[in-house]
Write a structure and sequence with these properties.
The protein has helices at residues 33-39, 43-49, 53-65, 85-98, 117-124, 132-138, 149-170, 177-180, 182-190; strands at residues 2-4, 11-13, 74-78, 112-116. By secondary structure, it is mostly helical. It has a two-stranded antiparallel ribbon with strand order 1-2. Strands 3-4 form a two-stranded parallel ribbon. Helix 5 (117-124) packs parallel to helix 7. The chain is globular.
C-alpha cells in the first residue's frame, strides 16, 4: 500500500499481511508465483516486514490526516481505483470501523472523493490503451519501481498531473485547471 500527497516529498507505504492462502497443498503462503514474478514481493518479505490491515488503515489515515482539517474534502487518486484499489480500501475501512469500539476513532470517509486516473485517461485517449505502464511510456514518465507501492504512487503522481494538464488544454482551460479543481474533474468523469 502506498500513498503520497500531490507534490510532497514524504509518503506512506507498507507491505500488508493478507489472508493466508488456504489451498490444499499450497506452494506459497501469501504471494503466488505470478505475483512474485510481477512485483518481486516474496512470502519472506511479507512475514518480515508486513503489517496487519488494521495497522495499515491506521497508518494510512494518520498520514492523510496530517495534511487536512476535519471538514476538508480529500481527493484520493488511483489508476484503476474503481476496479481495484478503492474497493479494497473501502472494505478495509469497513472492517476497521467494525472492530473499533469508540466512535471518535472510527474513520469517516464522507469527505473523501475517489478519482480513477484511468477514467481521466479515457477522456483523452478515447479508443487508446490506458494502463499505467503504457501511459507512463507515452508521456516519458519513468517508474523505477514498477508494481511496487511507492514506485507506482510516484509514477502515478506525475501521470495524473500530466493527464490533468492535457485534459485541461483539451477543454480550453489553463493547463493546471483540473489539478486545482478536482471537483470539476469528478463532475466530468461521472456526471
Amino acid at each position: 500500500v502506498g500513498c503520497k500527497k500531490l507534490t510532497e516529498n514524504q509518503s506512506y507505504h507498507t507491505l500488508v499481511i493478507p489472508k493466508e492462502n488456504d489451498m490444499v497443498n499450497p506452494t506459497y503462503q501469501y504471494v503466488s508465483p505470478r505475483i512474485n514474478d510481477i512485483t518481486g514481493i516474496t512470502d519472506t518479505m511479507i512475514i518480515d516486514s508486513g503489517i496487519l490491515p488494521m495497522q495499515m488503515i491506521e497508518g494510512l489515515f494518520n498520514y492523510i490526516n496530517q495534511f487536512v482539517n476535519s471538514n476538508d474534502t480529500v481527493y484520493l487518486v488511483s489508476h484503476n481505483g474503481n476496479g481495484f484499489d478503492f474497493i479494497f480500501l473501502r472494505r478495509y475501512i469497513h472492517e476497521y470501523n467494525n472492530n473499533i469500539d469508540e466512535d471518535n476513532n472510527k474513520i469517516n470517509i464522507d469527505n473523501y472523493r475517489f478519482i480513477d486516473s484511468m477514467f481521466v485517461a479515457k477522456l483523452i485517449h478515447i479508443d487508446g490503451r490506458v494502463n499505467q505502464p503504457y501511459l507512463c511510456r507515452m508521456y516519458n514518465i519513468e517508474n523505477i519501481s514498477e508494481h511496487r507501492a511507492i514506485g507506482d504512487v510516484n509514477a502515478l503522481e506525475q501521470l495524473y498531473i500530466k493527464l490533468c494538464e492535457v485534459y485541461s488544454l483539451k477543454k480550453g482551460r489553463a493547463n493546471n485547471y483540473y489539478i486545482e479543481n478536482p471537483a470539476e474533474l469528478l463532475r466530468e468523469l461521472y456526471y
